[in-house]
UniProtKB/TrEMBL annotation, chain A:
Gene: trpA
Family membership noted in the UniProt record: Belongs to the TrpA family.
Protein name, as recorded: Tryptophan synthase alpha chain
Lineage: Bacteria
Top-level division of the source organism's lineage: Bacteria
The organism of origin for this protein: candidate division NPL-UPA2 bacterium Unc8
Subunit (UniProt): Tetramer of two alpha and two beta chains.
Automatic annotation (TrEMBL), chain B:
Cofactor: pyridoxal 5'-phosphate
Record GO terms (molecular function): tryptophan synthase activity
Catalytic activity: (1S,2R)-1-C-(indol-3-yl)glycerol 3-phosphate + L-serine = D-glyceraldehyde 3-phosphate + L-tryptophan + H2O
E.C. designation(s): 4.2.1.20
Descriptive protein name: Tryptophan synthase beta chain
CDD domains membership: Trp-synth_B
Modified residues (N6-(pyridoxal phosphate)lysine): 89
Reported function: The beta subunit is responsible for the synthesis of L-tryptophan from indole and L-serine.
Subunit relationships: Tetramer of two alpha and two beta chains.
GO CC annotation terms, alphabetical: cytoplasm
Keywords: Amino-acid biosynthesis, Aromatic amino acid biosynthesis, Lyase, Pyridoxal phosphate, Tryptophan biosynthesis
Source organism, top-level taxon: Bacteria
Pfam families in the record: PALP
């Protein structure tokens, strides 16, 4: 069983959602990313989502745009990220998922990337600007090496599209909670719970929710319905505020622990 | 085979590489466009505005003095610079904003580089009474002050973009982010034959009025088709608008990219001449990028050409060999800018001056009486300040 599948099986038994922090690989530098992954795991993360920085992150808000820029400015490349994953596999078996735009993967080469990513210990890939329609070549390459592809469903997705997205995804399905770009928001969008419920009725695959989730209270409210919860910009902002300070790792860890404490739920 | 295919692919190029949130909107747009394209009342309304408001048909002017000076060829100028708002951009914005109205969208948004597309969108939005926001890079705002003021005067909100290169590419990113957020009631008026399907098709079709008119006009004037069509290529809408109705004819076509300080430097926008294939802003096409797939900044004296991508159909036409793509440097464009002003009394946009520069370079190899049509896509009023600054800097007064 893959690391992702067994993780979700375990969290299902435990009756709590998987907590999935997102950080940009290489922000503020690749060594800190390694320490962050280990700390986040220790403080309650179940899966880590590593962002691959891209020059034109059109689905991202200002926080992750700035984070990507910092990572690119210090020379974070795909090769460096895969090497980081490889090194981490000596220390942890936590599922690691890369989130990237399509072009960095396309330039690396679809086959070569799939092979190298699996070889390094990457479990799955989320590609923000690759809908199932354009993913035929990618799926062939990734599936050939046993790499999971997680597609995104959005509030605007039609029933028909949701069906396609579910069928095309492996590992889990990523439900984008808001009609918009990434970024912390004060309130959960209305309708997110009912949308989650609706998608979950259609599939046995895990359904994970992300975009705009930033507080322990929001995590608590989603815990009943989601198989996993992704928190990105709020965490990236804490890292940004602590750049150059000795508190960076512990601040990120404390935030992770505060989310984790609320990820409990009488699962329905 | 008619291209693109159903999914919007021109061979390897094109497609829809966008976040899922936008996919239903693109499907909705594809459907709406397919139905209105054939709709008699829509076509009638568009034709009315193109004629009565934008000033079409634009003249196909025989540039006699330029022809004499360069020798060997008959050079015609397709005078898109005479369109209302000063460039070909309004052909597309009239079509798209009318479409937005029919689709009952409450607001239009657009990106702009030189400001021409922003002004055309703001103008059309004012005409048709719809809210309008324009994204523009801070660097472009600084070098195109007058257009910024024009947009505001026309009632549009101008939103400065401070990310990345602070030019057209980043304005497009920011417009897409707005669209992702407000997609339910907002229509994105893309200004060139770029972006995800169906935009490259929609913009090409609305701009093809240029080529259709040119075809009729040259047949009337010369009794034959031209030997060459020459147009500048940034995203490539004016070029494709001119070329498309001639694609099945025996007419040679040349697209001219901006070579900036030279294609051997890092300061150019010659995407087709020097780029590689990749995905940017919703489409697979040639791009200026490094080996990691990070997009490079483009540079040109002409802000409308300052883009590290290009329309997917141009990539296809390059691969198929149907169109030849060349480039002209900032210096050559400036020289052509002055030449056309002095010899024909027409101040071209710096973008269009790249096409003129190419014709200056190629006439010596032409046969007598060969017919060359240049798409004079815009007028140079917007560039006069910038050019006067550059010439002053070089201590080269225009006289």
């Amino acid at each position: 069983m893959s690391r992702l599948n067994s993780l979700f099986a375990r969290s299902r038994v435990a009756g709590r959602p998987a907590l999935i922090p997102f950080i940009t690989a290489g922000d503020p530098d690749i060594k800190t990313t390694r320490r962050l992954v280990l700390e986040l795991e220790k403080r309650g993360a179940d899966i880590i989502e590593l962002g691959v920085p891209f020059s034109d992150p059109l689905a991202d808000g200002p926080t992750i745009q700035a984070s990507s820029k910092r990572a690119l400015d210090n020379g974070t490349r795909m090769k460096v990220i895969l090497q980081l994953v490889k090194n981490l596999r000596g220390e942890t078996q936590i599922p690691l998922v890369l989130m990237s735009y399509y072009n960095p993967i396309y330039q690396y080469g679809l086959e070569k990337f799939s092979k190298d990513a699996v070889g390094a210990g990457v479990d799955g890939v989320i590609i923000s600007d690759l809908p199932p329609e354009e993913a035929v070549d990618w799926k062939k390459a990734a599936a050939g090496f046993g790499l999971d592809t997680i597609f995104l469903a959005a509030p605007t997705s039609t029933e028909e599209r949701i069906g396609t997205i579910i069928a095309s995804s492996s590992g889990f399905i990523y439900y984008v909670s808001v009609t918009g770009i990434t970024g912390a928001r004060t309130a959960l969008p209305s309708g997110v719970l009912s949308s989650l419920k609706r998608i979950k009725q259609k599939t046995k695959k895990p359904v994970v929710v992300g975009f705009g989730i930033s507080t322990p209270e929001q995590v608590r409210r989603l815990s009943q319905w989601a198989d996993g919860i992704i928190v990105g910009s709020a965490l990236v902002r804490i890292i940004e505020k602590n750049i150059g300070k000795p508190t960076l790792i512990s601040a990120a860890g404390d935030f992770m622990a505060s989310l984790s404490s609320k990820a409990v739920g009488c699962r329905l | 085979m008619r291209l693109p295919d159903k999914k919007g692919h021109f061979g390897l190029f094109g497609g829809k590489f966008v976040p899922e949130t936008l996919m239903p909107a693109l499907d909705e747009l594809t459907e709406a466009y397919a139905s209105y394209k054939e709709d008699a009342s829509f076509k009638k309304e568009l034709t009315y505005y193109l004629k009565e408001y934008a000033g079409r048909p634009t003249p196909l002017y025989f540039a006699e003095r330029l022809s004499l000076l360069l020798g060997n060829a008959k050079i015609y100028l397709k005078r898109e610079d005479l369109c209302h708002t000063g460039a070909h951009k309004i052909n597309n914005t009239l079509g798209q904003v009318l479409l937005a109205k029919r689709m009952q969208k409450k607001r239009v948004i657009a990106e702009t580089g030189a400001g021409q597309h922003g002004v055309a969108t703001a103008t059309t939005a004012a005409l048709l009474g719809i809210d309008c926001s324009i994204y523009m890079g801070e660097k472009d705002i600084a070098r195109q002050e007058v257009n910024v003021f024009r947009m505001k005067l026309l009632g549009a909100e101008v939103i400065p973009v401070s990310s990345g290169s602070k030019t057209l590419k980043d304005a497009i990113n920011e417009t897409i982010r707005d669209w992702v957020t407000n997609v339910r009631h907002t229509y994105y008026v893309i200004g060139s034959v770029v972006g995800p399907h169906p935009y490259p098709v929609i913009v090409r079709d609305f701009q093809s009025v240029i080529g259709r008119e040119t075809r009729r006009q040259i047949l009337r004037k010369e009794g034959c088709l031209p030997d060459y069509l020459v147009a500048c290529v940034g995203g490539g809408s004016n070029a494709l608008g001119l070329f498309y109705p001639f694609l099945n004819d025996e007419v040679k076509m040349i697209g001219v990219e901006a070579a900036g300080s030279g294609v051997a430097t890092n300061h150019h926008s010659a995407t087709l001449s020097t780029g590689t294939t990749g995905v940017l802003q919703g489409t697979m096409s040639y791009l200026l990028q490094n080996s990691d797939g990070q997009i490079k900044e483009a540079h040109s004296i002409a802000p409308g050409l300052d883009y590290p991508g290009v329309g997917p159909e141009h990539s296809y036409l390059k691969e198929s060999g149907r169109v030849q793509y060349v480039n002209a440097t900032d210096k050559e464009a400036l020289k052509a800018f002055k030449l056309l002003s002095e010899k024909e009394g027409i101040i071209p946009a710096l973008e269009s001056a790249h096409a003129v520069a190419q014709v200056c370079k190629m006439t010596s190899s032409l046969k007598n009486e060969e017919i060359v049509i240049i798409n004079l896509s815009g007028r140079g009023d917007k560039d006069v300040d910038a050019v006067s600054r550059i010439l002053r800097m070089k201590n080269e007064p225009p006289e």
